Amino acid sequence: SLLHLLDLTLVDLPGITKVPVGDQPADIEYQVRDMIMQYICKDNCLILAVTPANADLANSDALKLAKDVDPQGQRTIGVITKLDLMDKGTDAREILENRLLPLRRGYIGVVNRSQKDIDGKKDIKAALQAERNFFRSHPAYGHMAAKMGTPYLQKMLNQQLTNHIREQLPAFRNHLHTQLLALNRKAEEYRKYVPDDPTRRTKTLLQLVQHLSVDFEKLIEGSGDKVDTDYFFVNKTLILVIYYCSALLQLESDERDLRREITYAIRNIHGVRTGLFTPDMAFEAIVKKQISRLNEPCMKLVDMLASFPKLRDETEKIVNTEIREQENKCRDQILLLIEIQLSYINTKHEDFVGFTWSVTVALHVTSRV
């Protein structure tokens, strides 16, 4: 029943894969390692390092990873398996007595069911009894049998987790309290923007947007209250906008130069003749020249925007979504058009009349033959 279950939360992490198998990626080892490190690097996490007894403890991947993030062995609990599969004349007594590679929380030995036991339908109760008999009867483990086995491991983990939570709770409470104070201070800044009257919400929203606009302008101009020395806040997008605007401003021609160019163009078009009207070609030539000058800054902007993978992905997603939506509408319109054509045959249409006349003539000629 649930009354006999222990309060325990475990995260089962995979073992390190050295050689990719099947369709596994070439960097599977590093992917698994990164995933494991995301969990065990946290200070409030207890590490359960499982190592088989028939392997060299110095080569244990679990203990090596645990030592990388817990060099003093404060958070690591060692579990030694396959004690019944060790070579004759050898044992793991030195390890289980925490003398070979000491851990603050020690080691616990367990004996699990073998594949033969599983195939033989050996149940959990019988397996636990066999495990107890193994430790009690073994000459190297008999004196520590009471602190070995799966049941003791369960109780020990529950106790360790409870103690660990008790140890970490004060610091965790202080951390939450600090965050709460910071959030309260932040919320206090916006308390004056909280309208009691629902009809004032639009005005309040406009005030917030205006406040944000002023702060953003101060940051751009460097006239804000605080100067950040930790990171560069003017991002690449803003730099592109500033570059493009300045590039367009450089393309603007002086009014006197523009008038002179127009005058030269008109004279060149008239040639030796005296013109009565102002030719459109003169203005077209000037406009085309100005438009062609947009080519360089626009192309440079495109090249700079090409380094925005998120923008490209988002654009592709929007375009693909629009295509799919329009595809369905297109299908509906085509089906509707076909239904309209099928619902009424206009025999008075000139194409239909012409076709009917051609058929009549052909039949008449055929009958004469």
> How do the helices and strands follow one another from N- to C-terminus?
HEHEHEHHHHHHHHHH
User: What would the average pLDDT be, to the nearest integer?
Assistant: 81
- Compute the CA-based radius of gyration: 41 Å
Helical residues, percent: 55-70%
Distance between the termini: 101 Å
Query: How big a fraction of the residues is strand?
Result: under 5%
Query: Biggest sheet: strands side by side, in what order?
Result: 1-2-3
Count of individual helical segments: 13
- The computed structural class is mainly alpha
Summarize the biggest pleated sheet: 3 strands, parallel
Give the CATH superfamily of the largest domain: P-loop containing nucleotide triphosphate hydrolases
Our count of domains comes out at 3
Protein name: Interferon-induced GTP-binding protein Mx
GO biological process, one term: receptor internalization
InterPro entries: Dynamin (IPR022812), Dynamin_GTPase (IPR001401), Dynamin_N (IPR045063), Dynamin_stalk (IPR000375), G_DYNAMIN_dom (IPR030381), P-loop_NTPase (IPR027417)
GO molecular function, one term: microtubule binding
Structural topology:
Elements: H1 28-40, E1 47-52, H2 61-69, E2 76-81, H3 93-96, E3 107-109, H4 115-119, H5 124-137, H6 150-189, H7 201-221, H8 236-251, H9 255-270, H10 280-292, H11 295-305, H12 309-343, H13 350-368
Parallel strand pairs: 1-2, 2-3
Helix pairs in contact: 8-11, 9-10
Structure report:
It comes from Neogobius melanostomus (round goby). InterPro entries: Dynamin (IPR022812), Dynamin_GTPase (IPR001401), Dynamin_N (IPR045063), Dynamin_stalk (IPR000375), G_DYNAMIN_dom (IPR030381), P-loop_NTPase (IPR027417). GO terms for molecular function: GTP binding; GTPase activity; microtubule binding. It is found in: Cytoplasm. By secondary structure, this protein is mostly helical. It folds into three domains: about 170 residues, 3-Layer(aba) Sandwich (Rossmann fold); about 70 residues, no CATH class; about 60 residues, no CATH class. It has 13 helices and three strands, in the order αβαβαβαααααααααα. Strand 2, helix 3 and strand 3 form a beta-alpha-beta unit. The model has no long low-confidence stretch (mean pLDDT about 80).
